Input
Amino acid sequence: MPCRIYSLFMKTKSRKTIIIILIAVFISAAAGIAVVLIKLSDLDTRKEDIISALNQKLNRQVSYDSGDFSFSLGPTFTFRGITIKEKNSRETFATIERTTFRLAVLPLLWGKIVLTEVLLERPIGKLHRDHDGILNINDLLEDQKEPQTFEIERIIVQRGAVTFTDQRIIPSGLTINVDEIDLKTGFPARGKSIDLNISASIIQEEKMGTLSIAGEFGLSDRDEPLANSSVDARIVAADLSIEQYRPYYEKHIPFLKMKGFLNMDTRLKGNPYRFRSEGLVAVKNLNVQYPEVFRGALTPKDVIMDYTIQRSPSGIEMDTLKLTVDDVKISGSCAIKDIDKDDPLIVATASFPPIPMEKFGHFIPYGIMSRGLADFIETHIKGGTYELKESRLNGRISQIAHMGKNDNCDVLYVKVGVDKGWLTYGKQTPAFNGIKGELELQGKDIILRNMTGNFGESPITLEGRITDYCIETPVQYPFTMTMTAGPKEIAWLLGRAGDNHFAVTGKSALRMTGSGTLDNFALDGQWDLSEASYSYRDIFIKPASQANRLAVKANFKNDTVQLESFSCRLASLTVTGTGVYDMKGSRPASFSVQSSPFQIEDFSANLPRIKAYQPRGGIQVSLAGDGMPKSLADLRWRGNIKFTDISFKPAETAKTVSNLNGSVSLGKNRLDTSPLAGHLGSSLIRGRVTLTDFKNPSVTVTANSALLDIEDLGLKSPSGAIKLSDFAGNIVFKDNSLHIKRLSARVNKSIFNVTGALPDVKRPFFDIHVSSPYLDMDDVLLLSTINAPKKEKSASEELSLKASVQSDDGTIGRIPYSKLRTKLTYRQGSFDIPAFEMNAFEGSFSGKGRVDRIPGSITRYRAGFVINKMAAEQVFKYAGSETTLIAGAMTVKGDVTAEGTTISDLKKTAQGTATIMIGKGSLYKLSFLSKVFSILNTSQLLKFQLPDMVNDGMPYNAITGTFSLKDGILSTNDWFVNSDAMNMSIVGTTNIIREELDVIIGIQPFQTVDKVVSRIPVVGWILASDTKGLITLYFQAHGNRNNPTVDAIPVKFLDKGVLNIFKKLFKLPEKLITDTGEVIMGQ
Output
């Protein structure tokens, strides 16, 4: 026990001793520290030493304005107005408004300087990297050879600023200004972890950017690379300009231009070889220009990436990757394995929900596609909603970089869902729309699987591939498509889209398969149109119940369409063909078409226009064509069309053409029929047809018939049957006009040779010339009665005619003529004869006239004529006189108008005048003149015997006169006969309607008076002379012109006006007329 107490006492004593010793040591140290601090506190006296030490430590000139020491919260040294110059230069490297050092006291007990805090207020520094990449602080970053004599526990920077100029990246220097730097961190030392909290503002041209880092950094040990340092921090950045820092990354990206503002909030933990990071990275107003891949700039407003990434020494794994581009969200994952090797492996997946094409179309990477595929997508795919259902990338970089080699393309698989797809081939082609299905990128192929949609309004299904899209070999496009074609699509497929005259109803089934490249594509189509009906105008009608199938095999190669086979089946008709066509038109095209033999009557329902012609008979076609066509008419066609036992009705009123056999041959831009023979009704006709120049066609028809009945032509005449003998014609149709090269025929005795033209077949106006060696006007009138039966509701334009006629000989009625020449125009029912001339009765006739037929009204006639030196006796003879009335050369000039529809009407309305002169001849039995001479013979007034008017006639020298006609009255005031025996004059009228005359006849015989004047009651006056005496006698004839009453009348009963006329005609002296008594008595 005592031992224990002693032991305890000794221990207690030892403790006290130790404590006392420690207190003594502490007091001594404190006293020593106080002495040191007191000495250090006088900074101004030690300023030169401090500056010298700093200059030596930093290897730069350092200066400060003032410094002080305080014990507030521990020993504190404060320096103000610090300036640090550049190494070996007078330029300023950095300035600090104030620097505060807080000193730890206890470490001084062991002779160690520890700065618990270094506070830098408003430090402004300049960093510079020269062309060789050496920083202006490079010497400060090197490990110090001298041991560190002090420690720093914490560094604080308030409102710092740094200007960094980099001439390494840009020779002229890239400047980055960082301001408002706030920093709190421990002193960085190798092998030590420190906390770091820093924020700063980065001055940029467009807007201010900010950056903050908060976390822990551990620097590697001195014997390890600095890259082994670790970090566990949160990094937040806002509005950092991507464009401003382009020089640092442009060598590592292919983009021509990239702009935008980077925002990020991410957590990073680990070192460069093993780390984990997660967070958000966003770019606002991104603008990426990559013309080698994208057609235009990519300009999304917001790009946000939410990611989780983990790095190991051998790989990088991104388990979570969510990318949002505007409102398009893409999710996936990515792993890069074997990054420590030369050829890392990339494994990635991605998917996104349905996205309208208008939102992502500009992201399509056309530049990495084959040219054909890129052009196809860009030109033809115009819309749709696309969903990335599945995508996988599993390949090494060497494989991805060379997708076109070996089986490298197998590293990629993509499945895209399509809905409401829209594919176009131009405005004239119906669009593929409502497309739904899947597209798979599998290996070298793009597979179109379970595709449905519409072609225009017609449902379709499609299975196909785009093969070898990623390799250098040509891309293939095999497909199979079915379509239930509706009316609009049928019209387009038949080449009649937009044609209002083409009508379609019902549906049809179309199946097409194809394979090959865009430069060499094979197409096979089968089209069943049996259930559809279609028609074009009233030219062709295909009813729904009629079997109709088309089959095509074609190859499209180097802009050339090779039509390997074509087949069209319509009921019993089969048409087949082949062809070659250059789509650019730079090489000749060729086609061949053949048909099976068919009966035309089987297709009369399909051809409404020919149905009315009641065609029957067999036809077979075999044609071929070649050339440089702009249309089918430009081809050089050749071949043969055979027809057997053809019959048809050429017009409604015409008889049937029957027993027609022959062929049509094509060649050298022309068409020729074989010699044809057939019956038109009962008339046998032979002929042929020729067509030249398909581009500007000219059709020539030649025909002849020994005897052609006009009723077989559908023409009729009130006069009965008319037959044309020796009929022959040559007619040409060209440029919508009809040319009559030759048309000849004989009607009774008349021979017609016609040439001329119908300038426009739409306007029935003929311009013809008729020549004839013999023309009987009765035959012409007979032909003029020919007419076609009128069709109901016919609105065709009335025939017009312009003609010139020449006839060597002929008759007009019973009048023979020669050298007849005339011109006439017939239009709208009116005849205009501007010239007419002929020879007749040993003289000639010429004239002109017009006949106006007014529908629903009367017909008007107007004529002017000249008869020159015709034999009067022949004129009267052919005018119907049974005996010769007048003989002599007659000349007449006159004009006449009339209107009406009957002879009686014409007599009543006729008006006109005529001047007559008949040369030397004889007057024969005129009824009224014979009675006058009978009276004279009975009176025995004259010595000579009057002429025998019946047998010998009375010779005369001339007959002249002027006649006028009006209201059926023919009148004359100067009809005068001059003869050696007497002068005779007639004044008066003849009613041509009632055939009555009322005339006064004056006779002046050139003979000696034989009796006493008072014995003759008809004496007017006596003209005496030395040798003879002359008298003038007057008679009146009235009544029926064939048997008039004739009476002698005294002068005193003559009207004064009439008497004046006779005075003028006979040239009588005025005195004798007014005072006859004086003359008689010789006074």
About this structure: The CA atoms of residues 518 and 590 lie 22 Å apart.
